[in-house]
Amino acid sequence: MSGWLNEDQIQVQNLVRRVARERVAPRAQEIDLTAEYPHDMFELIRELGLFTLPFPPEYGGTGSMLSACVAVEELGRVCYNTAYLLVVQWVPIGAILAGGTPEQKQKYLPGLASGDLRGALSLTEPQSGSDVAGIRTRAKRDGQGWRLSGSKIWCTNSGMADFVLVAARTGEDDQRGKINLFVVEKGTPGFEVGRKEDKIGARGVPSHALFFDNCYLPAEAMLGDEETGFRVAMAALNDSRPIIGARGVGLAQGAIDHTIEFIKSRRAFGQAVSDFQGVRWMIADMVIQTQASRNLVYEAAAAVDAGVTGKALAQLSAISKCHATDTAMKVATDAVQLFGAAGVSNEYPINRYFRDAKVLQIIEGTNQIQRNIVARNVLD
Question: Per the database record, which ranges form the Acyl-CoA oxidase/dehydrogenase middle domain (predicted)?
Fold first, then answer.
């Protein structure tokens, strides 16, 4: 692990690991059970200055995606939802950095880095999740600005966000794929945040439906231009996928931590459960796959830091996201099995890891879509 991390990143790892164990872990179960936004955890992250990690120095950050992944991994190891607070701040970064004007960058990035602003990214619609090119939310020109109409679902953090980056179609009605991102600020007339979804996992950071009823947006609300907007949206997802993979690594490692503690304290047939060879092989596989996922995620994050873009980054990001989140699901499933009946009880935290892991296989591009990306890059 240290082969990927420099001294600064190891310091980030040590700091976040200590804070996660001492201050975050005691809150994790309650956040999941109540499904209430953890304002105290947001303030803790803000105090520590962790929101700045992936930002360029000119916006108050360290410019390191690898540092960001390390922080997410350590928080996700004890509390998926607290780690998610970082992720939802960072997801808009790629789009704004790639397509934002200097004025847009100066307006939004410093506030995201400090925690004074909260953002969200909205792509998914009732009829199009993975099929981003099939988005129906429509932006039509109105003088110098735009009129936005349509609806979105599953927009995480939108209830708390000061602005949402909304993907909308700007081409003709039958023209697939001509997509742009628009900054829609809270309070914009015609913009409504719908009810909170009751989710199986990721319960502490709410997701909402969004509704746009002929919202007027000034020209400067568009990121990039009409010809490059869709590529900007895809670049945002590529840049953020190592972070999603890091959540999978943290979740898997946390499930391993809980499982080891549990099986070493239980006895059956006159010996510790951890002494059964079958159990030991399960633990070994969990550790092996988690370490493999960690290396893939760190490689992808290091590539972002090195300026890798395009097809090469898409491949690394897809592989790392897919493997890490599939591993998280497999490890969490085996962990529940090793807990036995206790694994399905809310008295123990392991079922929370199981539920959160399922979410990771779906969000930020399903793992089937990640496999499509990998296959297309090697076959087409």
Answer: 120-215
Please give the Cα distance from 376 to 88 (Å, whole number): 29
Residue 288 token pair:
């092996």
Q: What's the chain's Rg over C-alpha atoms? A: 21
Q: Choose the catalytic residue: 73, 74, 125, 364.
A: 364
Can you give the pTM of this predicted structure?
Answer: 0.93
The DSSP call for residue 365 is S
Strand partners of residue 302: none
Active site annotation includes 364: yes
First to last CA, the chain: 34
pLDDT along the chain (380 residues), means of 10: 84 97 98 96 96 85 92 98 95 82 90 92 84 85 95 96 94 70 96 96 96 97 80 74 95 98 94 96 98 97 91 94 98 97 93 97 92 95
Strand pairing partners for 121?
165
